[in-house]
Amino acid sequence: MAYQQIIALFFTMVILAIVPGPAVFAVVSRSFSNGFMHGAALTLGVLLGDFLYILLALFGLAAIAQAMGPAFELIKYASALYLCWLGLSMLRATAHGVQLVDTAKASFTKNVFTGIVITLGNPKALIFYVSFFPAFVPMTQVSFLDVIIILTIATGAFGSANLVYAYLASSAKRVFSSTKAAIMINRTAGCIMLLAGILVAITL
Fold first, then answer.
1. Relative orientation angle of helices 3-18 and 144-154, to the nearest 10 degrees
2. What's the farthest any 2 CA atoms get from each other in the chain?
3. Rounded Cα distance, 59 and 37, in Å
4. Which end of the chain is more exposed for a tag (fewer CB within 10 A), N or C?
5. How far is residue 55 from each of residues 50, 101, 126, 146, 182, measured CA to CA in Å?
6. Which sign does the torsion angle of CA 189, 13, 54, 85 carry?
7. pLDDT digits (tens, 9 = 90+) for 75-120
8. Its pTM surpasses 0.70
9. What is the pLDDT of residue 101?
C-alpha cells in the first residue's frame, strides 16, 4: 500500500468509527451502566470480530482479483459509488438519541465475548468491507505487511473511537441522549464520506 492509500484508509475508517452503530451503542450502554473498563472490554471483543471480517474480506477479494484481472477495476468504481451512497444516506438519516439501559455486571471475558458476538451478528460488516477495501487496497497483491497495516489502522480508528465513547458515556450521561448531537455527527460524517467517494472515483 502507498502512503496516500494508508492515510486515506485511516481517515475514512475514523469517520466510520465515530458514526454511532450497533457496536457503539453496546459500548455506550455497557460503559454507562457498568463503567469504563467494561466498555473497554466490549471494545476489545468488537475489534476481534472486526479482525475476522477484515481478514475474510481481504483474502476473499484477493482471490477474486487474481481471477478477474483487469475487470476487477469495475469493483473499484462500485466501491466509490458505495461510499457516495453511504454519505448521502448519512445526510438523509434522522438520528435518534441512544436509549441506554442498565445491565448486570459482567466479567471481562463475558464482555469480550459479547463484543465478538455483536460484530459477528452483523454480517453487513463483512459486506461493507468487501465493498470498501477495493477503493484503498491493491487487491491483486495484498502482502502480509498490508494486512498488518490494515489491522493496525482498524485498531487505531475503531478502537480509539469506541474507547472515547466509553469514557464519555461513563462520565457524562447526557452526551449520548442528545438527538441534536447525533444529527450533527451523521451530517458531518455524511459530507466527508460523500467527498471521499468522489475523490476515490476521480483518482482511480
1. 30
2. 53
3. 33
4. C
5. 9, 33, 10, 11, 31
6. positive
7. 667 766 766 776 787 677 655 544 444 444 567 888 898 888 878 7
8. no
9. 44
